[in-house]
Design goal:
single chain; 5 helices; mainly alpha; de novo design (two linked rop proteins)
Length: 127
């Protein structure tokens, strides 16, 4: 697969799906309006995953890209933590929690795989 733009990256596509699912659930439940701080934090975390992948893609070195991916990974973990708060407060039904948390896990796995690849010394990448 050719990767010419950040939108071609599987990790960015997974992060976009994560953000889509999250916004869909928020838009369907007016209870989120009771806690705009949490709502903003969780939306910010999901956007940060996507943005850091895109920003890192524009970097000149693989190590610099891996740093941005690490930040994206942290944002995805932050989002998962916020999901627990949202579920505990009744803003997020169990089915939605499971779906979004699972999408965050998929996103984390793909980002982790790309970080590992980027940090692999060059000669072994060609084997």
């Amino acid at each position: 697969m050719n990767v010419n733009r950040f939108e071609d990256l599987q990790c960015w596509q997974e992060a976009r799906e994560l953000t889509r699912q999250l916004y869909e659930v928020i838009n369907q439940n007016p209870a989120w309006n009771k806690n705009l701080l949490l709502c903003g934090q969780i939306q910010s975390a999901s956007g940060s995953v996507m943005a850091n992948i895109a920003e890192g893609f524009a970097c000149r070195s693989g190590e610099e890209f891996a740093q941005f991916l690490s930040i994206a990974l942290s944002a995805a973990a932050e989002l998962q933590s916020h999901l627990h708060i949202a579920a505990d407060q009744g803003y997020l039904p169990k089915e939605a929690f499971d779906a979004i948390y699972g999408q965050a896990d998929r996103t984390i796995r793909v980002i982790s795989g790309l970080i590992k690849y980027l940090r692999t010394p060059e000669p072994s990448k060609t084997k």
